[in-house]
Amino acid sequence: MVNILLPLLNILLYPLNHSLPFYSKKFGILHQEQMGTSEALFENSREDEIVDSEVKNIKEDVDEVCNKVNQLELTMNEVEQFYSVANKKHRNTLKASSLWKDKEKEKQSASFKTRQQDSICLETDASKRMQALTSEFSEILSDITQHKWAGPFLQPVDVVGLELDDYYEVIEKPMDIGTIKAKMEAKDGSGYKNVREICSDVRLVFKNAIKYNDEKDDVHVMAQTLLKRFEEKWLKLLPKVDEEERRQREEEKKAQLDIQLAEEAAHAKKVRELRVELDAVDRNLDQLRDMAFQKCRKVSVDEKKRLANALGSLTPEELGHALEIVSQDYPTFETSGEEVELGLDHLSHSTLWKLKLFAKETLLQREKSNASLQRNKNTNVNCNNQNGNTNKRRRSDTEMKTFRKRSRKPSN
């Protein structure tokens, strides 16, 4: 529809632009210096005048439609990119697994809105469970710190005071229970994310002491004893930790699915909106086309003769499309017979313009296709000539070598 409307507007706006077509760069229509015999066939007369204000109004409407189409195109590209990435993720999935995922996805999608409403509650529950586990872990840590041998591990090692010059060469990450407690109580987001992180640091406190001190050293023995005591109590808490981590994985999986469903829902909404807006653009273009054709000047007798010649040069398939254009304006016009009489003098000027533009575009495309075929043919001929010359040179070289061999005198 755009291809029909814009060339027509080019003709309408000819007196204003003095050059056809005015939208050539944007819509890929040929410039005037590129026009071939088909353009000469439909060269327009400049004698007729068109009301400038009406033409400008149509042009402004077309500009508005073009801007809208550009916006829709950007949205369409975004939607295509989203579904392209989504398809790549699931391309290598087995069919059975895919069917299971589709069914599971339907179930998840059905409860999507409900889960959205419950998401805040789930986050609150997870936070409470984490606090409960942290509280139980704090009891374990408190039991360790109250042990009579806990003193050396409650504060950072006094490297300077104890003159431990090689401490940082041996110990990569110093740790102490005081630092652990401070991190557990942190409110600025720098605290531990889960109980396993706390457990890892507690182990590090005692493993550092075991690593740096000799086996017979008191601190080494004390660290081994406290580490063993800690591991015993940790094993009792571990089942609850495992269960909480399992629940977190499930909730994260559901959250990821919710995000995916939300994105798909948003893009599905965009697709629906695109359809509505494209239908509106389509209707707007129909109106503009009708307005443009109504403002067309009358087709001269000479132009009708050139149009008749052009229609006569169309293929049967192309001529069928031309007759469909006529039948759109004249519903009672029969196009199904073996022979169809088409009297151009009996057609309205708007219909003649439609036929004229259709024939013009068809012949332009044919000229482009023929020119492309000719270029390819010339390229093939040049390649064959080059190959032939190469073969001749090779034969010539072979014959020369043979001649030289035959001309050699036998050695004594």
Automatic annotation (TrEMBL):
Ranges of Low complexity composition bias in the record: 374-390
This protein's UniProt keywords: Bromodomain, Coiled coil, Signal, Transcription, Transcription regulation
Coiled coil residues, start to end: 240-291
Keyword Signal: yes
Ranges where the Bromo domain occurs: 145-220
Comp. bias intervals (Basic residues): 403-412
SMART domains: BROMO (SM00297)
Database matches in InterPro entries: Bromodomain, Bromodomain-like_sf, NET_dom, NET_sf
Signal peptide: 1-19
Sequence segments annotated as region (Disordered): 370-412
Location of the NET domain: 289-370
PANTHER family: OSJNBA0053K19.4 PROTEIN (PTHR45926)
UniProt name for this protein: Transcription factor GTE1
